[in-house]
Please model this.
Amino acid sequence: MQDTLFIVCPHCGAANRVPQDRLNEKPNCGRCKAALFDGHPVELDGAAFEAQATRSDVPVVVDFWAPWCGPCRVMAPAFAQAAKSLEPRYRFAKVNTEEQPQLASRFGIRSIPTLAVFRKGREIARQAGAMDHATLVRWIQTHA
Ligand SMILES: [Zn+2]
Model:
């Protein structure tokens, strides 16, 4: 990994350069001053997805979900818990497939929840179906 990482602000979308050794010191966004990582998954629309998925130097773990989906609701706490334990090595994000149907169709999401990991604009892993916290963490660390 390089010494300086691009971290995309979950609030304003600015790409911040953060020295690798400062990643754990709760860095703030240079533009909007908000925390770059706050231990919570960030909800993405199309533009925010583009910024996170293509510009972030840390892998972005995306939960494609929908409000009416029971297994999605079951997995949500595990996903939030994973964000708390694995940030800032990964960015955790959610895409509501009802509000962002263009993202769901672009990535051919056929069942939800579907988890996908993106790095520098490339999808590097995908798994359909709900996972518990331990399985989720293991899956992420195995694939990204
Ligand atoms: Zn910002």
